[in-house]
What does this fold into?
Amino acid sequence: MDRFEEWLEKRLPARLVGAYYWLKHRLTGASCFVCGMPFLLHTPAQEWRCNNTPLDGLEITEQGMALLVVDEAERITGDAA
Ligand SMILES: [Zn+2]
It folds into this structure.
């Protein structure tokens, strides 16, 4: 993140910051994590394929699973109360 982006995130509403990043990643040729092609060149079908491809090596760690269990338990007890 550069200084402009820090400035942006402190002063603008989240919706505008999101629009900035959307434009940046669409127009500056940021590459897709899945196929390596720039996002701009994705056809709708290819975008759907990439969005629905699981990324290799991503899995829930034991720490993350513990957090999920705690969150689920809190949600259940919250619903009961
Ligand atoms: Zn892709």
